[in-house]
């Protein structure tokens, strides 16, 4: 969708539909009050009839009001005045755009960013408006033969800013919002594709295509032979049970100063995880096509970097493989040697994510990273610990961890830190190799991170376990595109103007 700034006299805005907020208790937001005055109390009179009380997300479409230039007026509930925050803005915006996408107008103007949301800046309110409307309009129907497309979808949304001036900040809000939304959509699309289409080779092809479209993005794909030469015995052991060859996708985005140390993002790209010989139960196994969401978020974040021409160097590394049972597959008890030289006893072939990640993390070191963040649907235990609201965060560096947490808060794509204390390390002891690939009972998310920490000692590193946040199940089954907003925000913060801490 296209977004433009609108300013000036509200009653004179010529548009197919004006979106205005109404608080709980039928209290008009300021833009609604302005229109009510222009229309001689019509809105108040309609509200008195009692069909609409202002609960967040409630909508009422009105036609033919006099005194204003708009063809329609969409009243949207924005909840209690005192509680109006970014979350409420998102919910109300999503409800409004969903109604308009079904109804007729091709174009509308929203005044919701004019209602102060908590202590958020105008930049944030505009950016969130774009993210929320794109989120509500997203559909994945690439694989349906007769996908129902809205006949007259919403194409343009004006963002009304009243008497405020268009500025660098408002323009940035739109370009950043769009880039974040598009990156999120790319991550969702890749993630929602089934495992038989989205294979390691397919992911590599999509990455290569991105590289061809941007001068700042260089993409290289390592095949199994090259990985073997590098000694990536852990990664290759996972793909041995699959007829799809593993790929190591390496994307270099050069937006920053030549020679300045890059942020390296490493995303788990397990395009289908059946568990291998330690096979998973069949219930909901289809959802293991989402085991590449970490990799998809790296592609999505790099796409956002390209779109914003972000002034920073970023490397994306995606180890991509399937994990299937087969005569060549890993067996419990097998011992493999990782690129780092450390040997690993594979006690459970379903703990494969850490096996492909550890070699990718060793590879990351060659880029002399300023920081490395890996993103992985790594443990079911993380879903138990944090559910679907926060991603798990573990890190060997407090400053980096706080930066990631802050980016999560700033983008509404939150993470919560778990400890990475040495006390947990001994759970990985093996009688036969340098370490086991599982940590036994208890603290599964932490012991998985402990495993990875043995391959990230040379640099500042943070690990995001997105097992609970990367997709939704049930009737709304689908990828969320998380944590593209968090990662993009993190990179925006990094290439600053260094923002002063407000607290
Ligand atoms: N991809 C899974 C983790 C996962 C499971 C994510 C369910 C989301 C929902 C990972 O490869 C895995 O199977 N992990 C095992 C580790 C265990 C064997 C130590 C798990 O979490 O059960
Ligand atoms: Mn697994
Ligand atoms: Zn997995």
Short description:
34% of the residues lie in helices and 20% in strands.
**Distance between the amino and carboxyl termini:** 36 Å
CATH top-level class of the largest domain: Alpha Beta
- Which superfamily, in CATH terms, is the homologous superfamily of the largest domain? Zn peptidases
What is the overall shape?
elongated
Helix/strand structural class: alpha/beta
Number of strands: 21
Helix count from the secondary structure assignment: 14
Q: Give me the Rg, rounded.
A: 25 Å
**Domains (count):** 2
Bound molecules: ligand BES, manganese (II) ion, zinc ion
Give the averaged pLDDT, no decimals. Answer: 97
Could you tell me the strand content as a percent range?
15-25%
The main pleated sheet reads as: 9 strands, mixed
CATH topology description of the largest domain: Aminopeptidase
Helix content: 25-40%
Which residues form runs of ≥5 with pLDDT under 50?
A: 499-503
CATH architecture of the largest domain: 3-Layer(aba) Sandwich
Topology:
Elements: E1 2-6, E2 18-23, E3 27-28, H1 30-38, H2 42-48, E4 59-63, E5 72-77, H3 86-102, E6 107-110, H4 122-137, E7 156-160, H5 168-192, H6 200-213, E8 217-222, H7 224-230, H8 233-239, E9 247-254, E10 263-267, E11 269-273, H9 293-308, E12 313-323, E13 334-337, E14 343-346, H10 353-364, E15 371-376, H11 380-386, E16 391-395, H12 398-411, E17 415-417, E18 435-436, H13 444-453, E19 461-465, E20 471-472, E21 478-479, H14 484-494
Helix pairs in contact: 3-4, 4-5, 5-9, 8-10, 9-14, 10-13, 12-14
Bound molecules: ligand BES, manganese (II) ion and zinc ion.
């Amino acid at each position: 969708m296209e977004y433009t700034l609108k300013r000036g006299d509200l009653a004179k805005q010529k548009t197919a539909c004006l979106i205005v907020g109404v608080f709980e208790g039928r209290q008009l937001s300021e833009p609604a009050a302005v229109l009510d005055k222009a229309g001689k109390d019509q809105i108040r009179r309609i509200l008195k009839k009692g069909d609409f009380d202002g609960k967040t997300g409630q909508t009422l479409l009105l036609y033919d009001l006099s005194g204003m230039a708009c063809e329609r007026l969409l009243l949207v509930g924005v909840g209690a005045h005192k509680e109006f925050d970014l979350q409420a803005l998102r919910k109300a915006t999503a409800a409004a755009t969903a109604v308009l996408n079904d109804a007729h107008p091709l174009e509308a103007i929203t005044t919701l960013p004019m209602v102060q949301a908590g202590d958020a800046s105008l930049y944030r309110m505009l950016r969130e408006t774009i993210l929320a409307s794109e989120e509500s309009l997203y559909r994945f129907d690439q694989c349906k033969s007769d996908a129902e497309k809205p006949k007259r979808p919403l194409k343009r949304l004006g963002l009304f800013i009243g008497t405020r001036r268009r500025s660098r900040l408002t323009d940035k809000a739109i370009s950043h919002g769009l880039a974040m939304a598009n990156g999120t959509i790319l991550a969702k699309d890749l993630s929602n594709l089934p495992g038989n289409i989205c294979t390691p080779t397919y992911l590599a092809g999509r990455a290569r295509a991105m590289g061809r479209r941007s001068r700042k993005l260089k993409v290289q794909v390592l095949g199994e032979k090259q990985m073997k030469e590098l000694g990536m015995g852990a990664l290759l052991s996972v793909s041995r049970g699959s007829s799809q060859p593993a790929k190591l996708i390496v994307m270099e985005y050069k937006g920053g100063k030549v020679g300045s140390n890059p942020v390296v993002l490493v995303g788990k790209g397990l395009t289908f995880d059946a568990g291998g010989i330690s096979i998973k139960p069949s219930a909901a196994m289809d959802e293991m096509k989402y085991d590449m969401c970490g990799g998809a978020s790296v592609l999505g974040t790099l796409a956002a970097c390209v779109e914003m021409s972000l002034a920073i160097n970023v490397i994306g590394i995606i180890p991509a493989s399937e994990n299937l049972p087969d005569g060549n597959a890993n067996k419990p008890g097998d011992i493999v040697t990782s690129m780092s030289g450390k040997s690993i006893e594979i006690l459970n072939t379903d703990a494969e994510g850490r096996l492909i990640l550890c070699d990718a993390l060793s590879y990351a070191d060659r880029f002399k990273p300023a920081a490395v963040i890996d993103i992985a649907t790594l443990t079911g235990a993380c879903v138990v610990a944090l559910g679907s609201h926060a991603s798990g965060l573990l890190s060997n560096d407090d400053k980096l961890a706080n930066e990631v947490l802050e980016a999560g808060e700033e983008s509404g794509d939150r993470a919560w830190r778990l400890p990475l204390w040495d006390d947990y390390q001994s759970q990985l002891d093996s009688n036969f190799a340098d370490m086991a690939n599982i940590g036994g009972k208890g603290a599964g998310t932490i012991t998985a991170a402990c495993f990875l920490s043995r391959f990230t000692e040379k640099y500042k590193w943070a690990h995001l376990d997105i097992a609970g946040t990367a997709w939704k199940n049930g009737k709304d089954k689908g990828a969320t595109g998380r944590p593209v907003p968090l990662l993009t925000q993190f990179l925006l913060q990094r290439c600053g103007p260094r923002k002063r801490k407000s607290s």
